[in-house]
Specification:
The protein is of the alpha/beta class. It has eight helices and eleven strands. Strand 7 (162-166), helix 8 and strand 8 form a beta-alpha-beta unit. The chain is globular and about 55 Å long.
Amino acid sequence: MTATAVFTARALLLDMDGTLVNSDAVVERIWRRWADRHGLDGDEVMKVVHGRQGHASMALLLPDRPMERNLAENARMLAEETSDMDGVIPIPGAAEFLTGLREVPHALVTSADVALSTARMAAAGLPLPDVRVTAESVGASKPDPEGFLKGAAELGVAPADCVVFEDSGAGIAAGRAAGMRVIGVGPRAGFHRPDAVVPDLTQVRVEAVGDGSVRLHVA
């Protein structure tokens, strides 16, 4: 985008990986090892895994495997990810962006579980929002809209008054299915036609409005 778009909202719902935290190095390491173990092409696996819970990615990649095995392997991989913070860094502008939301209703809506989201936000030096919807909070992974709808409900804001920040195709689809506007962050987002795309969070300015809403200036 070369011009500035303005979005007005009453709450913001924020994905974590790829949106606030750059964890691509860890995700690549762990999922490419998983692909090797199962005789799958690593590049094809990486096209699937971003934005989804691990067991949901496995169900797409190994459709004939029982879900019980996916869930068990996902639990082991979550523990592995939680112990590996090498290369986890903040998305540029994330710290300043979150500081600007102190008086704005907002929630973290992530496919990570509590342990992993807590560890990655800490590794990136970012504060955790008070309201968090994690893998334990939902019955369905993105692209299902359940997580974003739960985040809006916890904040007491109608879905149409929320703006989602997402990087992945699954996350953008989830935000749309929830009836929300979506701002895409980073190189993956542009392929999935969000309402606006920014390379990182340095390109978003938050302006509080007197009626309790917020304006987002997206360059």
